């Protein structure tokens, strides 16, 4: 027989309960359906006078199950998945601790090709840098790699993918101008060759 999930009443929310898997229930035992709230999920709970307020599920789980003796103000998702509100994935943190975790400990999931929203791979980024040094303009590179001109600028200025290119970030950099050092026929050859497989691509990158 399956053991019933343990539920505890949420502090300051009489008649509403949470379990350690990250679910919220009303007084009738019905599971509330969380709503997307930015990158997080939340549920609407009554605050009196017939009014409701949306609360982040991660905070409700934390205040119910996780002691906070140092009165830390924020709740961190250890694995970076803001929809995973299991007790084992949450912890109370200071603002600086939260930022450190976000930008350092989870670096691999927020930057580079492991970012699920990334259109480029590390290999393509290296190619972009090489082609830019050869003189291909921003417009050409934007079309070749199906990204915006700003993306190319950010790569060349070290504002993104610097962990791959080794280009140090440049803060006060003027907008890069297109350098059309290759004529139209040379570009056409490079463009077609790069998008082909095998020897042609290697020949282009060996320039």
Automatic annotation (TrEMBL):
Where does the record place a coiled coil? none
Keyword Thylakoid set for record: no
Which intervals hold domain HNH nuclease? 51-99
- Entries under Gene3D superfamilies matching the protein: 3.90.75.20
**Record keyword Hydrolase present:** yes
Show the InterPro entries listed in the entry: His-Me_finger_sf, HNH_nuc
According to the UniProt entry, its GO molecular function terms are: endonuclease activity
Question: Which keywords label this protein?
Answer: Endonuclease, Hydrolase, Nuclease
Protein name as annotated: HNH endonuclease
The species is Phocaeicola vulgatus
């Amino acid at each position: 027989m399956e053991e019933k999930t343990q539920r505890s009443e949420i502090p300051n929310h009489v008649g509403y309960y949470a379990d350690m898997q990250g679910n919220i229930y009303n007084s009738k035992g019905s599971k509330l359906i969380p709503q997307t709230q930015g990158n997080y999920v939340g549920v609407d709970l009554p605050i009196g006078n017939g009014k409701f307020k949306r609360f982040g599920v991660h905070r409700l789980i934390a205040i119910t199950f996780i002691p906070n003796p140092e009165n830390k103000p924020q709740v961190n998702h250890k694995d970076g998945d803001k929809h995973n509100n299991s007790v084992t994935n949450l912890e109370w943190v200071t603002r600086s601790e939260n930022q450190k975790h976000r930008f350092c400990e989870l670096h691999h999931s927020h930057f580079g090709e492991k970012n699920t929203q990334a259109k480029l791979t590390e290999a393509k980024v290296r190619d972009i840098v090489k082609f830019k040094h050869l003189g291909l303009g921003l417009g050409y590179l934007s079309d070749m790699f199906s990204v915006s001109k700003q993306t190319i600028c950010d790569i060349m200025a070290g504002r993104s993918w610097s962990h791959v290119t080794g280009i140090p970030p440049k803060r006060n950099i003027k907008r890069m101008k297109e350098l059309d050092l290759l004529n139209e026929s040379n570009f056409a050859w490079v463009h077609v060759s790069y998008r082909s497989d095998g020897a042609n691509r290697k020949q282009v990158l060996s320039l």
